[in-house]
């Protein structure tokens, strides 16, 4: 039944995609982020839904009369530079066959990320994209949170098999990145059911992240919550809510969870942590020896024999930073870090330049929300091989679109003055009753 439902939704959306490429982007995000076909048990699990949606979207872009050029932005230029550099490093890959296979996957993600930046331009399109991202990952947050409660936290939460978020650490990070988006959608609504639904989704997603037993996830959620609290207008209320909610959530988890989290400060005696450090040394030594890095998928016994302190302990990079360094060299890491820095700076620019315009309040709020998500990704990603995880790239696309809208609004006559009063974002105390 699930297979049929997903198939009907995808094929039923094709006319809408051809009519408007934005619909194609939204469907692509749903398929690539939520991976709903993995929740079935039949033909849908291997059916090429993503390919069909991508082809329909590209066709729609080709025939659409809407603007098709990429916005002039440091983010888009740097992303293109990163894509070009990855193509160069692939030519010098240590393992050409495995690199070519991974190259194909990554280039599809990058192509659709660029398409997202090209077609998502309006506020309503950005809002739809945030809703799709939130509900796609929120589904696993609700599911995982209920599982954690039912099991008393004794069993780990995992994501859908064969996806970016299939690993317990990856699903934790994805949910942590989504919690700020849930809060943004909640604050922007005056509907009681949305407030209640988002409260439940945030709570269950946080429990699911804890139930993943991810130590990197714990650090990421701490960093994300700290940033959200620092940027909140009601720090006292926010602090009280954290004091009321965080300790009970931690106390709910069993002793085995506490014991695992305690190993964060005892990494020298933890085999998994030392394996990651060994992989980081390998990536660093390989980048020093090879200007172009090792190319995609260099974590093999032979490379560890040449570059790792312990050649018998073969691991994936387990870090977005060392993954970029090992696969694409110091140049690749530099471009990737520049991409993150430009995204952060653009979000900060949006916050500053929308502060005094009432009908741009949503832009500043969403920009701060995306910063909170990216803080979580930057911290949690330090311990995960999620360099090509597509959600951060979609958030970059949102930042590009928001900045263009804010710049256009400020360029209008009287752009620094409010043209229409906008309901301020609600605090928890002002939630609909």
Oligomerization category of the chains in this entry: single chain
Percentage of helical residues?
A: over 70%
Which structural category fits the helices and strands? mainly alpha
Q: Tell me, what's the shape?
A: globular
List keywords for this structure.
mainly alpha, 433 residues
How would you explain this protein's 3D organization?
The protein is mainly α and 433 residues long. It has a domain at 1-66. Helices cover 70% and strands 0% of the residues. It has helices at 2-19, 21-34, 49-63, 74-91, 96-119, 123-151, 168-187, 192-211, 215-231, 235-252, 255-262, 271-289, 301-307, 320-354, 361-380, 390-411. It is globular. The two termini are 38 Å apart.
List the helices and strands and how they pair.
Elements: H1 2-19, H2 21-34, H3 49-63, H4 74-91, H5 96-119, H6 123-151, H7 168-187, H8 192-211, H9 215-231, H10 235-252, H11 255-262, H12 271-289, H13 301-307, H14 320-354, H15 361-380, H16 390-411
Helix pairs in contact: 1-2, 1-3, 2-3, 2-5, 2-6, 4-5, 4-14, 5-16, 6-7, 6-8, 6-16, 7-8, 7-9, 7-15, 9-15, 12-13, 12-14, 14-15, 14-16, 15-16
Structure at a glance:
This protein is an all-alpha fold and 433 residues long.
């Amino acid at each position: 039944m699930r297979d049929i439902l997903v198939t009907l939704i995808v094929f039923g959306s094709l006319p809408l995609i051809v009519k408007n490429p934005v619909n194609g982007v939204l469907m692509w995000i749903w398929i690539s982020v939520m991976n709903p076909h993995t929740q079935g048990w039949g033909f849908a699990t291997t059916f090429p839904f993503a390919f069909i949606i991508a082809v329909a979207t590209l066709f729609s872009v080709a025939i659409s009369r809407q603007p098709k050029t990429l916005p002039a932005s440091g983010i888009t230029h740097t992303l293109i530079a990163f894509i070009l550099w990855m193509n160069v490093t692939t030519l010098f890959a240590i393992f050409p066959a495995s690199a070519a296979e991974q190259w194909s996957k990554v280039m599809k993600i990058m192509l659709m990320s660029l398409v997202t930046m090209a077609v998502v331009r309006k506020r309503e399109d950005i809002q739809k994209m945030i809703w799709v991202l939130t509900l796609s990952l929120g589904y696993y947050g609700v599911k995982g949170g209920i599982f954690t409660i039912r099991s008393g936290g004794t069993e780990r939460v995992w994501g859908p098999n064969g996806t970016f978020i299939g690993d317990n650490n990856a699903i934790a990070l994805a949910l942590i990145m989504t919690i700020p988006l849930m809060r943004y959608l909640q604050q922007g609504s005056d509907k009681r059911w949305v407030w209640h639904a988002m409260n439940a989704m945030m709570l269950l997603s946080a429990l699911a992240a804890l139930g993943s037993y991810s130590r990197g996830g714990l650090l990421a959620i701490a960093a994300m919550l700290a940033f959200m609290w620092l940027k909140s207008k009601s720090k006292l209320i926010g602090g009280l809510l954290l004091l009321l909610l965080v300790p009970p959530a931690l106390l709910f988890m069993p002793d085995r969870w506490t014991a695992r989290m305690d190993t964060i400060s005892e990494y020298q005696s933890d085999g998994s942590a030392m394996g990651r450090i060994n992989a980081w040394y390998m990536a660093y030594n390989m980048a020093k020896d090879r200007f172009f890095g090792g190319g995609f998928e260099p974590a093999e016994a032979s490379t560890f024999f040449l570059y790792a302190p312990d050649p018998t302990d073969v691991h994936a990079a387990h870090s977005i930073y060392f993954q970029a360094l090992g696969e694409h060299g110091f140049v690749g890491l530099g471009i990737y870090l520049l991409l993150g820095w430009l995204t952060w700076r653009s979000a900060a620019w949006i916050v500053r330049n929308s502060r005094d315009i009432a009908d741009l309040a949503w832009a500043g709020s969403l920009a701060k929300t995306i910063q909170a998500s990216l803080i979580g990704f930057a911290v949690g990603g330090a311990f995960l091989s999620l360099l090509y995880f597509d959600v951060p790239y979609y958030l970059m696309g949102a930042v590009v679109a928001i900045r263009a809208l804010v710049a256009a609004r400020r360029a209008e006559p009287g752009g620094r003055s409010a043209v229409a009063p906008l309901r301020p974002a609600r605090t928890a105390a002002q939630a609909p009753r």
